[in-house]
Every structure is written in C-alpha cells, then in structure tokens.
Amino acid sequence: MLKVSGLNVYYGESHVIRDVAFDVAEGETVAIMGRNGMGKSTLLKSLIGMLPARSGEISLGGDLISGRPSFARVAAGMGFVPQGRMIFPYLTVEENILTGMENVVDKTVPAYVYDVFPVLAEMKTRRGGNLSGGQQQQLAIARALVSNPKVLILDEPTEGIQPSIIKDIAQALNRLKTDRGFSLVVSEQVLSFAVDVADRFLIIEKGEFVYEGPKETVDQARIHSYLTI
Amino acid sequence: MTFDVLAMQAFTGLSIFTILMLMALGLAIVFGLMGVINMAHGELMAMGAYCSYGAARFFENFAPSMMDYYVFVGILLAFVVTSAFGFLLERGLIRFLYKRPLDTLLATWGLSLVLQQVYRQFISSKEVEVPTVSWLQGAWQPTDGIALPLSRIFIVVLAIVTAAAVYWLLFRTRWGLRIRAVTQNRAMAGAAGINTARVDAYTFALGCGLAGIAGSSFTMLASTGPTTGQHYIVDTFIVVVFGGVESLLGTISSAFIIGQMQSWFEFELSGSMARASILLLVIVVLFFRPNGLFATKVRR
Ligand SMILES: Nc1ncnc2c1ncn2[C@@H]1O[C@H](COP(=O)(O)OP(=O)(O)O)[C@@H](O)[C@H]1O
Ligand SMILES: [Mg+2]
C-alpha cells in the first residue's frame, strides 16, 4: 500500500533521515520504534509533506505522491496524526473533525466516529484547546480518520497520556482497523502499546533502520534494549 | 454639554468606527491568516473610493435617470475590483514572500507608492467628490435638537450588513472553517487536507475587498485623493493591534472604542492632542495585555 525508498531528509545541513526504505502492506500495522531524537517525527512529517525530502520516492497505492503538497497527499489517501496532536485550539471539537473532510462529499461527522470516541460526542461544542491530552489525541485521530485514509500515520500517540487511556486508544485503533481496513504506521517509545497494535516492528537509530521483525518472532528484550540505552 | 450634542458626537464616532472597522477587519483577517502586513491596504481603500467615483461619473453621463442607485453599483464595483486586484496581488507577488515579513512590508509599501502615483497620474492629483444621491440628502431628526445625517446612517447600516456577512462567512461556511483552521495552524491544516495556498489567495482577496467597501462608503463622508489611504492606514493598524489579532470581535470592539475616542477627544482637545492621547492609551493597554485587549485564552 505504502512504498518508501531512498528517502533522505535534512534540516539545513544536518542529515537526519538517511536512505530510509520500507513498505507497508494493505491492512498492516507497522510500529517505528526509537528513542527521542532518532528521527521518527522527521520521517513521518516528510511522509505527509510537512517537511520536504531531499531525495527519495513515496508512493501510495501505486500513486507517486512525493513532491506533492500535504493536502494532495491527504487527497491521495494519507491520514496524519502529529506528535503533540496539533488540535486547532479555537475550533470546536466538531469543527476540528470537519477540517478533515475536504475530500468527502457529505460533510457531516460520520456516526462511527462518535461511536468509537464517545467523549468527543459529549464535548462536541467545546473548544479543542480546552480538552485534556487524552481527549485531544482521540480528536486528532478522528480528524485524520474522516478523510477515509488508506494509510493512517500516528506520531507517538501515547506521549503525555495516562496509562488507562493508552489502553483505550489501542483498543479503539484495533477496532477501527478491522472495521475500516486502513494500514497503520505508528511511531512509539512505549513498547506495550506497540505490541498491542503492531504486526511488524522497525527500529530507527540516528535516521536509519537497524532492526526489523514481525510480531510473532519479535525479540522484545532486544527492542527494549534499543529504547532504553 | 447637552444631551443633544452628546448624542450627535457619539454618532459621529459611530461613523468613524464603521470605516475603521471595515478597514481593520480586512487587515486583521489577512494578518491573522498569513502574517502579512499589507502596507498598501490604504491604497486599496482609495481604489474602492475611486470605483464609487467612477460609478457616479458613469451614471451621471450615461444614465442620469438611474443616478439614485449608483451607490449600490459603486459598492459592488469597489468590492469586485479591489478583491480581484488583491487576488492577483497575492498570486503574483505576496505568495513568493511568505516567511519574509520584512520583504513583504517593503514590497507592499512600494506598491502603495506606485498606486498613489497611478491615482495622481491617471485619475486626478486633486481630490474628487461624488454627489450625494437625493435619498441620502438631509438628516433624520428624532428630536428637535438632534440631527443625524442620512448618509452617515447609511454607512453605519452598510458596515453592520458587511460585518454580519463576514461573520457568516467565517463562522457558518466551509470557507470560513478553512480560513480559521489555516490561521490557527497552517502546517496542520495542510496535513488535514486543506489546500492552504488556495485559502491564502481567496482570503487575501476578501481582505482587500473589505478595504474596497470601506473606501466606497468613505466617499459619502469626505472627498478622495491619491493619499487618502495614508490617513487611514495608521489608525487601522492601531485598531488591529489594540484589539488583538486573534479575535475579530476584538477588532470590531477596538474599532468602536478608537472611533468613539477619536470623536470625543477631537471635540474636547485639538486634533493632534487627541491622537497623542489615543496612542498613549493604546500603549498602556498593550503593556498590560500584550496580545491585545480582547485576546481569548485557551490551551495551545
Ligand atoms: N526543526 C528542527 N531543526 C533542526 N533539527 C531538528 C529539528 N527537529 C528535529 N531536529 C533534529 O532531528 C533529529 C531527529 O528529531 P526527531 O525526528 O524529532 O526525533 P524523534 O521524533 O525520534 O524524537 C534530532 O537530532 C533533532 O535534534
Ligand atoms: Mg518525535
């Protein structure tokens, strides 16, 4: 579904993503694990086009989308939930969700969204900026979901969120994946959450993948050692 | 001071307010969205005024029987011409200067000088006036002592209708949702699927169109010259800064306060003392509320 090859991203002269390549199959969930500063956010932002890539190709369901602006990548079927959530603070919860519906003909929030995230229904008319971290995370996922993405990208969804809510979010994601059939790319430092949702693990160190393995044979101790050093 | 004088002075403040508000709304929307300070905003107001003037001359010469209605044609023409100009300006110049606020400042300032010269060269170096249509002549006298000029009542109504339309556009339509989303977080709006470049172009056009309407109603208060815009741009900036760029209601309230102060202070003090006092007040307010008098509080 998603194919990335030879991707290089720089901040000025500093080379942060180095020749990264990976594929994500239809319906598959890939977790990109790595400590702070290893390049997870940089990689994911360059996938959605928030950061320009210096070289490399990104294709989505056969469409070459690298080089297109963010909104066109969303139109092609990419959904993005950034680190820190980036809710529009002065828009209501409902308006925040509606911003994700540019390419949908019927511009009303679909019922399944409030079904999966009932708290958003309760808070519909509140300003996004006044929600708690966990609520904002659910809102950010909802905003990305309503564009009906083929590939949903989540950048550290558990950062700054209570453990009980992390469980809820993992459950919600698994339910949504089976119901709506999208692929998922999620970056994480929390191994338990990643194990709950992922089919395959990639480990990133200093902008390069250093380990790859499917869930069945995964060596949790080894992943853990990459995350804690 | 009698009640009559009080009421008439307040009303004068109200009509200054309407021009300031229309100008400031356009400037604030554009600044909030793109971080672009358009130094040529005043000249766009003058452009709107000249559109009204052009409509008046056209009707005078070719359709004198319809002269009573030229006002509406003038307003519409002002909006269409200035917003089209704004659209081309954004596509042709401003969009290449995003993230370079100083260059934008210089470029639009340069443009304002060019426009002034164009007005001088091709329209008139003197001030031009439009005739007051028959149904706007005279005044409404609610009591014996109070006389409120009809033309001023008209521009107050026009401003209210325009502000309501802007409110509706921003808060009740999908276009408004896009504008507000891009204003609050440009990169995220793009990643949520919004075509930010297109939003920029249309919003800039809207802001310029509002300046055009301001200019068009300005013709009913005073004559228009090549430097008319210059007199209003400074006050407009003060209004925007005073109100805070985040809330348009703040911009409107701020225009109201500044318009009223201008009218009162000029009545009590000399013109330049009035301006100095207003500036002083604005500085004091900004010292205690750096984001403007009406900034809203939410977690970011
Ligand atoms: N805006 C930026 N400008 C320059 N360097 C940056 C910027 N953002 C991140 N970096 C650097 O890029 C590297 C990767 O950062 P990031 O992608 O945020 O890592 P992660 O998401 O894995 O914590 C880090 O060394 C960080 O210091
Ligand atoms: Mg990160």
Structural key phrases:
heterodimer, A: alpha/beta, Rossmann fold, 6-stranded mixed sheet, B: 300 residues, mainly alpha, two-stranded antiparallel sheet, 2 strands, 72% helix, binds adenosine-5'-diphosphate, binds magnesium ion
Structure write-up:
The complex is a heterodimer of chains A (229) and B (300). Chain A is of the alpha/beta class and 229 residues long. In chain A, 35% of the residues lie in helices and 27% in strands. In chain A, the strands form two sheets. Chain A has a six-stranded mixed beta sheet with strand order 6-7-8-3-9-10, with helices on both faces. Chain B is mainly α and 300 residues long. Chain B has a domain at 14-124 and 148-230. In chain B, 72% of the residues lie in helices and 1% in strands. Chain B has eleven helices and two strands, in the order ααααββααααααα. Chain B has helices at 3-34, 41-62, 70-92, 101-122, 150-172, 174-184, 186-191, 196-218, 228-243, 248-268, 271-288; strands spanning 139-140, 148-149. In chain B, a hairpin with a 7-residue loop joins strand 1 (139-140) and strand 2. In chain B, helix 1 packs parallel to helix 5, helix 2 crosses helix 8 (196-218) and helix 3 (70-92) runs antiparallel to helix 8 (196-218). The interface between A and B is medium-sized, with 29 and 23 residues. Bound molecules: adenosine-5'-diphosphate (ADP) and magnesium ion (MG). Adenosine-5'-diphosphate is lined by residues 11, 14, 16, 34, 36-42 of chain A.
